[in-house]
Design brief:
mainly alpha
């Protein structure tokens, strides 16, 4: 139970310690939130179309050397 609790606490402690360093990034995301949403949505749509047309599988085959 101690190991489980420690394993659960470590990511939260790491996030709490990293928060001051991430503050500029958080502020940037707050200012540009709408554009981040638009770009992410467009990316998801493009990936969906690629999966539908089976071009995503061909693209993935080009990167098999990484795995």
């Amino acid at each position: 139970l101690i190991a489980y609790s420690a394993g659960l606490a470590v990511p939260f402690l790491a996030a709490a310690l990293a928060l001051p360093r991430l503050q500029p990034l958080i502020e940037w995301l707050r200012r540009h939130h709408r554009w981040v949403q638009v770009v992410a949505g467009a990316f998801i749509i493009v990936i969906g179309v690629m999966i539908f047309l089976n071009t995503f599988a061909r693209l993935a085959n080009l990167f098999t050397f990484v795995l």
